[in-house]
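Table S2 (continued). Query chain:
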Amino acid sequence: MTEITLYHASPSRSSIVLWMLEELGQPYDAQLINLQKGENLSPQYLAINPMGKVPTIKHRGVVISEVSAICTYLAESEAERARRRSEARSVSQMDVLRPQRDRARGIDGRYPRKEEPRRATLGYGDFDTVMNVLAQATGAANPYLLGEQFTAADVVIGSQLRWGMMFGLIPQRPEFVAYVDRLNARPAAQRAREKDADYQKQQEAQ
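Corresponding output:
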């Protein structure tokens, strides 16, 4: 019996965690949550994640939600986990790229503000600054953000860049394209995409 259960909808943000698990090579169960059928709002799932969102994982009775928190948890050593075993570990983190993608989608245009908010009131500052900082980081990646060592940061940032460029929400800067191409070539990333495609077919067949 595996110790990790991933509550997964395909495709969605939980695809990032699917990739992380493939990189780790740890056995896991994927329990598919059909968002179109509202399975994420069922009493059974809301008992696990009251926000009704994916991804969520269970590991030895510990429940973790949100991509960054899950990837951080999975990257921790057993010793690091043991130090907080008795704590409640339902952590919610917002990735800096997600509000930028929302802005790019035109949500600000659909729900216009009377005036532009002061830069200091926005956690991400402004779109151009975030893109420039990311371009510097990915341009300097050799081949990954922390050099030769592939880390959870590559999974989270790389996935956001990949999806953002795929849907035209993030500009296809040369630094982003080269960095994402390197990540896409990783065997674990390819396995995750193949599994995700199979999971999507299973959900559509239901």
